[in-house]
Amino acid sequence: MSISTMLMMKMNEKGITQYQLAEQAGYAQSYISQICAGKRTPTISTLTKIGECLGVPVQTFLEDDPMVSGETLSTQERRLLLLFQALDEPNREMLASIAEQMYIAQGVRRRRASRGRSKNKT
Q1: What tens digit of pLDDT does each residue of 6-62 get?
Q2: In whole angstroms, what is the distance from residue 93 CA to residue 69 CA?
Q3: Gap between the Cα atoms of 99 and 97, Å rounded
């Protein structure tokens, strides 16, 4: 179940409108509407505030979301994915570039370390 679907379900259970939720959480009604429509992906802190207003933990919104759930993703990976989704496109590009640089640097360090171990064996 997506974040938007879970949010609308919890709002319905609590009998709260988008306008009421927006007021309680401190967001514009249009922002809450975009989240409910699946047009915006809220940050963890936004989901936490929304969850507090609805009386549910933030995990309620994340556990069944097909974009952040799955047996293959760890909690940390799901967190990173959610944060990535909340970024605008220029920041997504920047983060992807940084991650690629880190990945390359990690491979270089591993190769150097394995060469060092090989030299010690001879």
Answers
A1: 899 999 999 999 999 999 999 999 999 999 998 888 888 888 899 999 999 888 887
A2: 23
A3: 5
- For residues 41 and 86, the answer to whether their CB atoms sit within 8 Å is yes
Task: Please tell me the distance from the alpha carbon of residue 62 to that of residue 100, in angstroms, as a whole number.
Answer: 26
Tell me how far apart the alpha carbons of residues 52 and 47 are, in angstroms, rounded to a whole number: 8
Q: What is the DSSP letter of 20?
A: H
The crossing angle, in degrees rounded to 10, of helices 18-25 and 29-36 is 120
Residue for token pair 């064996």: 121
* Alpha carbons 34 and 32: distance in angstroms, whole number: 5
Looking at residue 59, its amino acid is Q
Report residue 16 as tokens.
């709260």
Distance (Å, whole) CA 2 – CA 61: 8
Locate 47 and state its tokens. 């989901």
What pTM was computed for the model? Answer: 0.54
